Amino acid sequence: MKVVKHEIPSIDGKGIMMGHKAYTDDFAERNSLIVKVLRSPHAFAKIKKINADHARKLPGVALVLTHHDVPRKPFTRAGQGYPEPSPHDKFVLDEYVRYVGDEVAAVAAVDEKTADEALKLIEVEYKVLEPVLDFEKALNHESVIHPEEDIHEMFPIGFKPKINQAAAYHMEVKNVEESLKTCEVVIEETFYTQAQAHAMMEPHTVNARLDVQNRLIIYSSTQTPFHVRRIISQALDVPMSRIRVIKPRVGGGFGGKQALHGEMLVSLVTLRTHKPAKLVYTRKEVFESSYTRHPMRIKVKIGADKTGKLRAIDCHILSDTGAYGEHALTVFMVAGSKVLPMYNKVDAVRFHGEVVYTNKTSAGAYRGYGAIQGNFAVESAIDMLAHKLNIDPIELRKMNMIAENETSPIFAIMGEGTEGTAMNMDTCKLDYCVERGKALIGWHEKYPRQDVGNHKIRSVGMAIAMQGSGIPYIDMGAATIKLNDDGFYNLTVGATDIGQGSDTILAQIAAEALMTTVDKVIVYSSDTDLTPFDTGAYASSTTYISGNAVYKAALKMIELLKKAAAKALKVDAETIQFDGKAFSSEASESTISLIDLSNRLYYNEDQEQLTATGSYFGTKSPPPFMAGFIEIEIDKETAEIEILNYVSVVDCGTPINPKLAQGQVEGGIVQGLGMAHFEEVKYSKKGQLISNDWLTYKIPTSLDIKKLTTEFAESYEESGPYGAKSVGEIGIDTPPAALGNAIFNALGVRMTELPMTPEKIFQKLQKK
Amino acid sequence: MIVKLTLNHQEKRFDVDASETLLETLRNHDVMSVKKGCDASSCGTCTVLVDGKPMLSCSLLTVRLQNKHIITVDGIHDEVEKISTYFGLEGADQCGFCNPGMALSIYALKQMLSNPSSEDIKTFLVGNLCRCSGYQAQFKAIKRYLGDPL
Ligand code: FES
Ligand code: FES
């Protein structure tokens, strides 16, 4: 391969660093109305009265919107296909406010100052209601968070709002209770994972204007432009054909932009005032009023025989979706479906539980999407079992983990809120990942611990993980390749580059297939008017799904080129050879270069525009796998932890661009370490968010990272483009369990609650 | 209020409100390389150089910058080009939202510290948050850039 599996610099990194306009707010109209949102000070309340007269009269105010002024149509902000597995339980504005930060009203004014002043002039009388803040008490709580009658599920997901249940699920293979009874060893533990904030650097941002055809043109910092168009159309009753959504560069998403945040209000302002409008979330709004990761309580039981052969796994999860049910069921299911198949040799397995509403910031999609939560519980429990059996945790995993050409019944049972898709592991290099990681971290010398003096202990810990490559039969990507005069191409894709480098790797796939170089493939993504459809950047789908679409489009383009060349050379198309630069035929003395052919096509003879479109949806979702190993130094007295090294060995099939793939893994590892070690969304007793800026919500800085060691297994997934699987999420999954296992190996205390801060470790040590 | 300052080597006069921050002034005048990642002087995406020192433009009032020399990435294109080449080679670019601010800090680091250790580099850059990269590829790129003669 000449382009794929080569380290090509990202195609737009230079332009961005040099300061060219790139992100949503860079494209806002200069005279945009500034949209600001009045947000609820209460965790749960009903608006008794709202009076916006004074605000409306303030000079410079163009529009004020309250729940009396907007269409009342339930929808979901979750951009995840259609019909969505998320309940339609959200209104543009509602008479109820369900968390501190929920939308009460919006104003549009000529400048920020006026907008702020207008917000203060809106008089709201609330009936404050008893909030539900403890998710373990949410089910059947006397406060019903969604009492309204007009909300609904799109298909059965266990939606029972009257008992604060957004979704529920149950599945069982064989009889787990019976199987557990026959086990010689059983581990039983309850784990808690916290809410984590996405904290992408670019805040949620949207701006809108009308064009000369009076259409609504929206720039949005989104992972899912096509879902944005559809959801705006549905919620605001505007024909989809009247809306164009443009996604410029996105400054990070991680799932947080797999939803609509300011789009509805800004669209309404522009539609009503006919003026351009914009909204950039403040950092406080990003923390308070967008999304977090779903906190979960995970009860795990794992049973095995004396030799360490796993017999049964039982998993009950209670998940907290906050005020609205976005991604409620699907994140919950992924906590099982992308964790449990790793131990495919068990006799019986059960996965069940509920997703509940609380009066907190809504939870939504977040890199890992449940898998990181489930992984923490199961991979911690596996180490507990190893300890009880006195077996090396790596050996225990090797006895039980999934291998190439094997399968798990779970793939067929659990899908995206519905049934899943049976599949074999055509590529699974977990065994290699584990062995290689073991060598790289120096397990043999370092496991379980070394006392290095000065009351410091060094230890190692590990975990394995899997993710997916898109959602089979649902996620769809398409790509169009257009030949230009002078023999270069445009590649337009609906796939959404949010910083993961998809524009670059899709150009690489096209260039490889077209036997050319990346500079000859000009990528544009994504614009609902101009680019073909793509469900968006989520579920680790872009490399595999959109990449396959690009590959198919390129093959079609080659066929078109050969036909055109055959006409020019006056031979049969079957005889044409193409090497990326020129066409020849055994039936002809003459050859024609791609440049000459394309100039001929557009200026001289047989004029014709050559355009090829490829689209792809998966019939399976080949999981990337990895083994993660951590080495830490921990102070026995203070429980302060220093992370010395994190080794990742990843099977993502062919890494299309090894450096960018490494960046995906390492970025995921560091986010995962943040979650494992210190990141935590915190609320006051009244449900106010305490962690609402970067001083109160700490994310890893340059100082937190000592060493990351990242390698890829040789692996070639036949169904992927040039052997690739996806790699966007897998990096985030292992750090919590690996760190928890390392802490146990160092100090003998089992951490069951994230984040594992020195304070919590210290408390456990006291109790030991 | 009228403020006279030098922006990227050119004299400018800005008519600003007393409460306007430099970040607002710059973006209002189409200098889009300075980014707004927060409102609390805590992310580094709005970094500019004021008389050569990296500062957060979201925490500076434009009226206070009379006669100061402000540099954004637009004013040191050649150096930023070099930095970005190494970022590209190391795969350090992801969403890029932190990159212009980071580039200015890196440039200032090279001017201000000679032979910095890894810890020095990390400490110098601690105010430039990046949520995407995990920092490691960025350090590698920075070290290569620092190895180049000034
Ligand atoms: S915008 Fe975040 S520090 Fe200035
Ligand atoms: S590259 Fe996205 S924040 Fe640094």
Task: Explain the layout of strands and helices.
The complex is a heterodimer of chains A (768) and B (150).
Chain A: H1 13-17, E1 33-39, E2 45-51, H2 53-57, E3 61-65, E4 96-97, E5 103-109, H3 112-121, E6 123-128, E7 165-173, H4 176-181, E8 185-193, E9 205-210, E10 216-220, H5 225-236, E11 243-246, H6 263-273, E12 277-280, H7 283-289, E13 296-304, E14 310-322, H8 328-337, E15 348-357, H9 371-389, H10 393-400, H11 409-413, H12 430-441, H13 443-446, E16 449-453, E17 456-466, E18 476-483, E19 489-493, H14 502-513, E20 521-524, H15 542-569, E21 576-578, E22 582-585, E23 592-593, H16 594-604, E24 611-617, E25 625-635, E26 641-651, H17 658-677, E27 708-712, H18 735-747, H19 758-767
Parallel strand pairs in A: 1-12, 10-11, 14-15, 19-20, 26-27
Antiparallel strand pairs in A: 1-5, 2-4, 2-6, 3-5, 7-15, 8-13, 9-10, 9-12, 13-14, 16-17, 17-25, 18-19, 18-24, 21-22, 22-23, 25-26
Helix pairs in contact in A: 5-6, 8-9, 9-18, 14-15, 15-16, 17-18
Chain B: E1 2-7, E2 10-15, H1 22-28, E3 47-50, E4 53-56, E5 69-71, H2 77-90, H3 99-112, H4 118-124, H5 136-147
Parallel strand pairs in B: 1-5
Antiparallel strand pairs in B: 1-2, 3-4, 3-5
Helix pairs in contact in B: 2-3, 2-5
The complex binds FE2/S2 (inorganic) cluster (2 copies).
Please give a structural write-up.
The complex is a heterodimer of chains A (768) and B (150). By secondary structure, chain A is an alpha+beta fold. Chain A folds into three domains: 13-129 and 201-252 and 257-289, Aldehyde oxidase/xanthine dehydrogenase, a/b hammerhead (Aldehyde Oxidoreductase, domain 3, Alpha-Beta Complex); 296-470 and 620-767, 2-Layer Sandwich (Aldehyde Oxidoreductase, domain 4), CATH 3.30.365; 476-617, Aldehyde Oxidoreductase, domain 4, CATH 3.30.365. Chain A contains 19 helices and 27 strands. Chain A is globular and about 85 Å long. The termini of chain A are far apart. Chain B is of the alpha+beta class. Chain B has two domains: 2-73, Ubiquitin-like (UB roll) (Roll), CATH 3.10.20.30; 75-147, [2Fe-2S]-binding domain (DNA polymerase, domain 1, Orthogonal Bundle). Chain B is 36% helix and 15% strand. Chain B has five helices and five strands. Chain B has helices at residues 22-28, 77-90, 99-112, 118-124, 136-147; strands at residues 2-7, 10-15, 47-50, 53-56, 69-71. In chain B, strand 3 and strand 4 (53-56) form a beta hairpin. The chains are: A alpha+beta (768), B alpha+beta (150). One FE2/S2 (inorganic) cluster is lined by residues 36-38, 41-46, 56, 58 of chain B. One FE2/S2 (inorganic) cluster (FES) sits between chains B (94-98, 130-133) and A (201, 252, 499).
